[in-house]
Design goal:
Blueprint (H helix, E strand, L loop, with lengths): L2 H26 L7 H7 L1 H19 L2 H10 L9 H12 L7 H8 L3 H33 L2 H33 L1 E3 L6 E2 L5 E4 L8 H5 L6 E6 L2 E6 L2 H29 L13 H7 L3 H15 L2 H7 L6 H40 L13 E7 L5 H11 L3 E5 L2 H13 L4 E5 L2 E3 L6 E5 L8 E7 L11 H10 L1 E9 L4 H8 L3 E7 L5 E3 L13 E4 L3 H12 L5 E4 L5 H12 L5 E4 L13 E4 L3 E3 L4 E3 L2 H8 L11 E5 L3 H9 L8 E3 L3 H7 L6 H10 L6 E3 L3 H10 L3 H5 L2 H8 L8 H16 L13 H20 L3 H28 L21 H10 L1
Parallel strand pairs: 6-12, 6-13, 7-10, 7-11, 8-10, 11-12, 14-21, 15-17, 15-18, 16-17, 18-21, 22-23
Antiparallel strand pairs: 1-3, 2-5, 4-5, 8-9, 19-20
Length: 851
């Protein structure tokens, strides 16, 4: 039997049921019973159409598409490749005439008994009136519900405190039960565990002030469940539990109170009206927006309740009047307690502010010697400022030169000794003591204010504005103990130094370039490179790539970048000075006090990474670097060229230096001495440093490295065994924390120190240039520790090792730079030197496909 055949009797019965429905609707709507003939006259159209509607809908919806297509094929229709919509349309047309059911005749035969007709009428009329009555009731209830908004709002407002009294009493009972019966567990951060919680006994109510402090206890109700054959322990925080308590009482009491008030107001409790009364679920639906807000409000109020007050309340049976008076009394006492707590908090904050001022505030005011003469040497790069200052130091009975870089300290050390002025070198990583020397060449961080010198020279003093190192210049300028202090820097420095020195005896010497700077009119390309050029870019990778490209084009090249060992940098410079190389490729390290016979400075880039983000060069940075062009007697005109952004570069090159607006301040030993009168933890020190507001014109050093290293040893025996000053001294060692290997070396050395063990030796690898440079840094960090621990004999050995490694770096530069190829940093595929991006086109396209 086909689907169509089996469906036919179903459709017939459904048609008959539709006729019965229509008959009941028709008869029920009549106040008096109509005749059968009247019904058939009025509903003839319906009775003649109902079969076709039922049949077509059932057949088209329930007959499978495959059978529809077979049916249509039998009638000669082409059905392959025809859309479903058209198949259905053709099928409906073809089955219209399929065994039509004569609904009209069936109805005439079925309804022909007058007594049955009257009985059907009575039943239909009764059903109709019942439905109408229910519709009327629902309509009245709906109108009532719609009119209740104002009434409910009034009741919520009037009974709000009563609701809270119930909530407060319910919370008090549950709190008393928990504290007296529930165990206390150790605090954990996870919310589902595979191990049970550690029982710590019972709660002590005296340990908590407000309920909020109690809710700070993280663990609560433990539930043990089975999951894949294992026992899993889960727990809820008390915060979750008490939120649920508040929700329970609010959802229980508020709708019930509102329902009782509505029934009393609108139905007056009459027996006849009870069947029309509203139900609780309807009130909850009306309050669906208000109840969550009440829960949040009550939970916020409950957290401010005092634990001892709630526990006393738990012993009092609920009576609205009594509980209201208790609440009023508790609120009055609470206000007094809050005032006392706020007063205590204000006193504590005032004491803290006074301590911060005592610890830090007095430290950052200049303390100048009244008999010191200050000479300020200001001017552009390559104007002889440092030379004239050093000439005065050479003539003095004793002198101190403070440099920003080890290389400059080393350069002055060599120069003074070669000129017959005995000079000792001191940096954090090395000491070269010359017998009988009364002159010292040091990095600026080695300055000690208690040492007296006839003349002090402070070089590159504009670095006072550096956010991390600037305080070393501030300290040297304002606390130098000398007859004469020479301060060397850019023009931007003058205003700030004069402000710092106040009424001191200051002589200002301004310097101008003897050699003019000439900006070339056309953009530079690498093919235009000539002897005497210094090509400047801003990453070690770009420097090495550019140097490789030039060397492979036949140009002997010297290389200078910031992370290069100073000895290697010195050798690279000497190769250029001696004419062994024709070109220098360098980072902006070339702009810091390096005097070289440079014909032309070329900017290959206009942006640099400053440790936080890539940004465009500033006017001062451009002039500092460009000023290295020209050398009197060799190149009487210094040339400057740009490979892009020429208009912008030229504009900045002509700009006047903006005066420095601020300088960095950092903690001193005196600060730590005052700090230790009150505290013993570095974590507190860092917190107070953050809160300390530095004086106008100053910026606090970020102490980012110190904080990072502190986290490595916080809470360990290193922190426990070292004094605060010693620990901070080790945190402050000048090395780069960007290299994880150095951080690990620092950590291992710190543990060796507190355990009294031999210091771990630095890891030395020499397979390639990068490994050699990392090994050089590792030895440098080791030397920082050795000199700090006064292990000078051991330090001499490692200085020799470092010198040998520096030679290896120098040799590697000669060989590896020439072999270097530009490669895609993702897949390693060779790239042409002209390729503008660090990845190949294929990798670039793949990256966007993944997006």
């Amino acid at each position: 039997m086909s689907h169509l055949q089996s469906l036919y009797p179903v459709a017939v019965e459904y048609t008959k049921s539709k006729v019965w429905e229509d008959l009941y609707r028709y008869l029920g709507s009549k106040e008096h019973p109509p005749t059968m003939e009247q019904y058939f006259f009025d509903r003839r159209s319906y009775l003649e159409q109902i079969w076709l509607n039922v049949w077509l809908n059932k057949a088209s919806n329930q007959i499978p598409r495959r059978e529809k297509k077979e049916w249509l094929k039998n009638f000669g229709h082409e059905v392959e490749g025809v859309e479903r919509k058209l198949i259905n349309h053709l099928f409906r047309n073809e089955i219209r005439a399929y065994q039509p059911f004569d609904t009209w005749s069936w109805a005439r035969d079925r309804f022909n008994d007058q007594d049955e007709w009257l009985e059907i009428y009575k039943n239909a009329r009764k059903q109709f009136l019942a439905e109408e009555d229910e519709k009327q009731k629902q309509g009245e209830k709906l109108r009532l519900l719609q009119s209740l908004d104002v009434f409910i709002e009034e009741r919520l407002t009037e009974d709000y405190q009563l609701f809270y009294l119930h909530t407060r009493a319910y919370i008090a009972k549950n709190l008393e039960k928990i504290i007296s019966t529930q165990p206390k567990y150790e605090q954990l951060e996870l919310f589902s565990l595979e191990i049970p919680l550690h029982n710590m006994g019972y709660f002590n109510a005296a340990d908590y002030t407000t309920l909020a402090t109690f809710l700070g206890e993280l663990t609560g109700d433990i539930r043990k469940t089975r999951y894949r054959g294992r026992n899993l322990y889960q727990y809820e925080t008390y915060e979750i539990i008490f939120k649920q308590f508040v929700r329970e009482i609010v959802y229980d009491k508020v709708p019930a109170f509102i329902l009782a008030a509505i029934n009393k107001q609108f139905f007056h409790g009459s027996v006849s009206a009870r069947s029309e009364m509203l139900e609780l679920a309807e009130i909850e639906a009306l309050l669906k927006d208000e109840l969550p807000d009440i829960v949040l409000d009550f939970y916020s109020l409950i957290k401010e309740e005092y634990v001892d007050e709630l526990l006393r309340l738990a012993t009092v049976s609920f009576d609205p009047d009594i509980h209201e008076q208790i609440l009023l009394d508790d609120l009055a006492k609470r206000e007094k307690r809050k005032e006392e707590e706020l007063a205590a908090q204000r006193k504590k904050e005032e004491e803290k502010a006074e301590r911060i001022e005592e610890i830090f505030g007095q430290e950052y005011q200049p303390r100048l010697g009244s008999d010191i003469r200050y000479v300020l040497h200001i001017g552009d790069t390559n104007t002889g400022k440092t030379f004239h200052a050093l000439e005065q130091m050479k003539k003095a009975s004793s002198g101190l030169y403070l440099a920003p870089l080890r290389l400059l300290a080393l350069e002055v050390f060599d120069k003074l000794n070669s000129n017959g002025v005995p000079c000792t070198l001191k940096t954090g990583e090395e000491e070269k003591a010359i017998q009988g020397a009364r002159h010292f060449s040091c990095t600026v961080e080695m300055f000690h204010e208690k040492e007296y010198f006839d003349v002090v020279v402070i070089d590159e003093a504009q670095m006072i504005s550096d956010k991390d190192r600037g305080f070393s210049w501030y300290k040297a300028i304002t606390k130098a103990n000398a007859r004469e202090v020479h301060i060397v820097g850019s023009k931007s420095l003058q205003e700030m130094v004069c402000r710092l020195l106040g009424d001191a005896d200051i002589e200002i010497k301004e310097y101008s370039r003897d050699i003019p700077l000439q900006v070339e009119k056309r953009l530079f390309t690498l093919e235009q490179t000539k002897k005497g050029d210094a090509l400047v870019c801003f990453s070690r990778k770009r420097v090495l790539e550019t140097a490789s490209r030039l060397q492979n084009s036949g140009f002997p090249v010297s290389v200078i970048y910031g992370s290069m060992p100073p000895e290697t940098r010195k050798k690279e410079m000497q190769r250029f000075i001696d004419g062994e190389t024709k070109v220098i490729v360098a980072t902006d390290a070339i702009g810091m006090g390096l005097n070289l016979p440079i014909r032309r400075i070329v900017f290959l880039e206009s942006e640099k990474f400053d440790g936080t983000k890539r940004r465009r060069l500033t006017s001062q940075e451009i002039k500092q670097i460009a000023g290295r062009a020209g050398r009197k007697g060799i190149y009487d005109v210094g040339k400057v060229a740009f490979s892009s952004d020429m208009k912008w570069f030229k504009h900045l090159l002509k700009n006047e230096d903006e005066p420095l607006q601020s300088f960095a301040i950092a903690p001193t030993s005196a600060v730590f001495e005052r700090f230790q009168k009150y505290y013993r933890e570095l974590a507190i020190f860092f917190e107070l440093w953050e809160q300390f507001e530095s004086p106008d014109g100053t910026e606090k050093a970020s102490l980012a490295q110190e904080k990072e290293l502190y986290q490595v040893i916080r809470g360990t025996e290193v922190e426990a065994k070292l004094s605060l000053m010693d620990l901070y001294g080790f945190l402050h060692l000048p090395f780069s924390t960007k290299d994880q290997g150095l951080i690990h070396q620092w950590r291992d050395t710190m543990f060796a120190i507190v355990k009294g063990e031999e210091l771990p030796e630095p890891v030395i690898r020499k397979r390639n240039l990068e490994e050699q440079e990392l090994s050089y840094k590792a030895i440098g960090l080791h030397l920082l520790f050795l000199y700090r621990l006064d292990k000078r004999l051991e330090a001499l050995y490692w200085e020799k090792e470092r010198a040998e490694l520096s030679d290896a770096v120098h040799e590697s530069l000669k060989t590896e730079v020439k072999k270097m190829k530009k490669k895609c940093r993702r897949c390693g595929k060779p790239l042409s030197w002209e390729h503008p991006y660090p990845i190949c086109n294929f990798c670039h396209e793949k990256r966007y496909e993944r997006w």
